[in-house]
Amino acid sequence: MTTLPNAAAAFPDPADPYRRTEQIFPRLTDDMVRRATGYGRIVDRPEGGVLYSRGNRIVDFFIVLEGAIEVLALSTEDGKPDTVLTVHGQHGFTGELDLLNGRETLVSARAQPGSRLLRIDRPHFHRMLQAEADIAELAMRAFILRRMGFIQHGLGGVILLGASRTASFLGLQRFLGRNGYPHEVVDIDRDPQAQVFVSAFGLRAEQLPVVILPGHKVLYDPGTAALADTLGLTEEIAPEEVFDVAVVGAGPAGLASAVYAASEGLRTIVIEGLAPGGQAGTSSRIENYLGFPTGITGQALAGRAQIQAQKFGARLAISRMVKGLDCSAHPYRLALEDGRSVTARAVVVASGARYRKLNVPDYERFEGQGIHYAATAIEGRLCPGEEVIVVGGGNSAGQAAMFLSRIARRVHMLVRAEGLAATMSDYLVQRIASTETISLRPRSTITGLGGAGTLEEVTWFDGPTGRSVTRPVRNVFAMIGAEPNTAWLGSCLSLDGKGFVVTGRDADGAPLADTFASSRPGIYAVGDVRSSSTKRVASAVGEGSVVVQSIHRYLGGM
């Protein structure tokens, strides 16, 4: 932090964002400040005072000309004063990622007495980002690092208290983590600090999990929609607002569509039920995506794309599922599960696909309580020193097996086929073969699940031996096949026999010139949800970027 004399000593972790002082709290040059002045107005604050408070939406961007600005985080504990996170001096500036969207800000800011500031409102701030590339680069890097610092140190966030192996507790962790919201996890089964919170707030076991907010407000076992509303993660959309394009789904295809549409001047909104990333967002590491020779996690890739889309002005409506599409009139109207709606002149269907469920008795009982569809750090914390099972033979299953092999004592990889070569990239096949802690079990299927409350043991038919095997396995990662998320489309579009959206043909089946056009004009499909698409991140990104040209042609011909 800029207020610390020795950041390296205060933050010994080399990866800590706060060690990168010159990048996380940079100072603009005199020339940058001169150019920025054209986008705002100079204000004097002789008495100092609050510039904005935690929970405010659409806050302004401030550059210090004289004096200083203090940035504060509210305390989540009784008796503790608000924490001063940093003090911006001359030519320093406020803001982090929430300055790019309409969410509630995580921190407060106050000017010190005698300060002189350059104040830039939200519309002019976005114009400055587009026009002043060097200022944009400096600010965007700082915003990303500041949010990373919040997440790493639990600053400006909430406390999540509960039992680690329950579905609701894990679901809230995934929601907060994948949406980049700072939080501290307190596990009542492992963390000695847990009883302090239980006693202080008078909690009972049946009330868990709870989310403790600054100001000591407690949310008891909230759903993700209620949590998003309370934290201000949901976008406020005016009922009369009409977008040029609405993208349904924030996986790689949807985010690529949003980046290219917004960067080319289209009023764009992305609607996502859980968090950016889609299936790719749950990947522990993607190593064959162009431009990332050391690999990148799916969540990091999705996070960068989300920020990029917001930089160009795209809106992201998170935590609201689309439940229906009214295609009987134009503009099209998307009905959301909370009763609101979004209106757009063009629609991109990028709602992706989900992993299939195993056909095993009691399967639903253990979903989220031993059966998982992602292998990230959240799930990894449940597996140290244990046996785990990965079901599936595709790249996602392979990436999960490799990730878990560094944590678990043994990874049993169950596949129906004779091997992995036909369904998995060769680099993963070779790594799995050379990893001693992974046991590949071809021609094998799970036949039974057992446990009181949470999963405790798994039985499978073992192809190589022809015998039934039962092991004390508490975590199964199911990554088999894909089912399209198209139920919300109703009868609006033509679907193939498996429910994927047919593109390149009109309602009568006649060929169309546009590869990604659906059977209804102005509605397009990209990525995994599209019939005959290649189910890879790179191809999804390509389709999402290319479709924008079709949208331009359609809107231009209206």
UniProtKB/TrEMBL annotation:
This is Thioredoxin reductase. Keywords: Flavoprotein, Oxidoreductase. Transmembrane segments: none annotated. The keyword Ribosomal protein does not apply. It comes from Roseomonas populi. Gene3D superfamilies: FAD/NAD(P)-binding domain, Jelly Rolls. InterPro entries: cNMP-bd_dom (IPR000595), cNMP-bd_dom_sf (IPR018490), FAD/NAD-bd_sf (IPR036188), FAD/NAD-binding_dom (IPR023753), Ferredoxin-NADP_redctase_2 (IPR050097), RmlC-like_jellyroll (IPR014710). PROSITE patterns: CNMP_BINDING_3. The keyword Oxidoreductase applies. SMART domains: cNMP. Residues 24-146 form the Cyclic nucleotide-binding domain. It comes from the Bacteria. Pfam families: cNMP_binding, Pyr_redox_2.
